[in-house]
């Protein structure tokens, strides 16, 4: 359809299968001068439109807008597929892709210009990957060139060179694996009417058999060849009393009852034989015996790539595969983390998907954690790296060297080996003369100078403080507490200590003067 027609440029000429490098009224459309002229095609059912090609018949500067959708095209409300602004060149194709593909049953072309303008289209092409290519249909040597058309997953071959009776036409189609057209709906009727009109524009009296017969049990009822009742029909009224039916070119390709012995053209309806070779995804391997109906295609990805999508696809009787093709996504995890006192090795020399790394520790260290990791789908190694810790079970014992003697911080009551100095209060007096390093050395303690006690104070405990002898043994220089125990002395009495000894008293400190 289009907004108007001029000079016989009817809208059907844009999809008649022939184009021209210049304006030709026999094959190009033409509207009258309009402010916004438009033209559209009905695809009969929604398709995912990917690309629209337009061959224009006039040189004019304009803005071309292509819309795709299911609303009335003349309203201009369908979504915009693409837009072009510039000089339209006569006979030169203009490609307008829909990115992304857009669904719709109507594809319309709108011409916008500063002044009134005429829209002329010599040929329009609508591309979709949902339409069945004729290459997937049966091919026969004696079929007329260009006789095959496809619709809704089925193949239709139009035979117009050797008319046959209804019975012979049916036998001919069945011998080639097909049948006469034995179904109907508004979209299919529109498709067949268009194909017949396109093939017989100059011969409106052509006739074609269809696969419907009158019910012998009920003369008012018609049945398809498979035995189902005809529920959707497009009869040309009034009808007759014949038992077979045809597409009647003289009645706009509506149906008419016909004598079954008449010799007419016919249409064979076939299922596709194959789905065709699909496009192979990059970085993949595709395995299949053939691409006929029922065949299964298996996909595998190259090393380091992840298969996203189905691993296999099956060719259906509609001529299409049951799944979208998969994609092989490249996965890279990067080099693994280094670990102290250890190292790693890439088992297959790569860091791609499913690559593996194994960690090990240097001698004297043990591995804590997982030794082997794998590159996962998130482009990360599937776990943290392990650690190398010192192996305490295999470390040899090392002799401990003697340490320097130190003064004790607190007196110990437990004697140590070798034996300490005598723990008895009575100690032998020191003798004058030179002393060897291992001889006992007396330490004289000067009494502290304290104020004289008052008359009511207690007398001094002892006027004489005996000598304290300390054994100068290098391994044990602790003095047991028992040396501070004196017979008959009350607590808190000042006891003499070595001048070299660090000491702590709980009571008054001894002034060594």
UniProtKB/TrEMBL annotation:
UniProt GO molecular function: metal ion binding
Composition bias type Low complexity, residue spans: 398-413, 451-474
Compositionally biased intervals (Pro residues): 418-435
Keyword terms, alphabetized: Calcium, Disulfide bond, Metal-binding, Repeat, Signal, Sushi
PROSITE patterns: C_TYPE_LECTIN_1, C_TYPE_LECTIN_2, SUSHI
Domain C-type lectin: residue ranges: 151-269
Superkingdom of source: Eukaryota
Chain spans, region Disordered: 384-513
Gene3D superfamilies per UniProt: Complement Module, domain 1 (2.10.70.10), Galactose-binding domain-like (2.60.120.260), Mannose-Binding Protein A, subunit A (3.10.100.10)
Segments forming domain Sushi: 273-330, 331-390
Disulfide pairings: 301-328, 361-388
Presence of the UniProt keyword Metal-binding in the record: yes
UniProt xrefs under InterPro entries: C-type_lectin-like (IPR001304), C-type_lectin-like/link_sf (IPR016186), C-type_lectin_CS (IPR018378), CTDL_fold (IPR016187), FTP1 (IPR006585), Galactose-bd-like_sf (IPR008979), SEZ6_CSMD_C4BPB_Regulators (IPR051277), Sushi/SCR/CCP_sf (IPR035976)
Keyword Cell membrane: no
Pfam families, sorted: F5_F8_type_C_2 (PF22633), Lectin_C (PF00059), Sushi (PF00084)
Biased composition (Basic and acidic residues): 498-507
PANTHER family assigned: PROTEIN CBR-CLEC-78 (PTHR45656)
Annotated protein name in UniProt: Sushi, von Willebrand factor type A, EGF and pentraxin domain-containing protein 1
Organism, scientific name: Cryptotermes secundus
Organism ancestry: Eukaryota, Metazoa, Ecdysozoa, Arthropoda, Hexapoda
